[in-house]
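Recap from last week: sequence in, structure out.
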Amino acid sequence: MIKRIGSTDIQPRHRAVCHCGAVVLELELPDGVVDPRRCNCSMCRRRGAIVASVPLAGLRIVSGEETLRRYQFNTMTARHYFCGNCGIYTHHQRRSNPDQYGYNIACLEGVDPFDLPGPIPVGDGVNHPADR
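Predicted structure tokens:
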């Protein structure tokens, strides 16, 4: 668990915002950022985001729900959300654990993902068990 990234303390309730500010999320992060990771699936390797997860109840859309767009592909299980204005990926309902949202660490207020301690592990989304 990571309680501080760069000069930013990760709050138990921390906001995440897209680039234009239209989409604002509130994340329940009582243990800080847990298990940051990348994925090599066709979607994740193109967007390049570092993600961590929260339970479904741990993410609340504060504003911009009407601005969010959803994208699904392949098994149609995961639901990827991005801002319809600026295009920034904010979060997704996970395929490997549909009871969780993955969120874009770079959207956390005050956080620069380049300040994360490394190395950042990469999950094998290319060979995902749901694809077998």
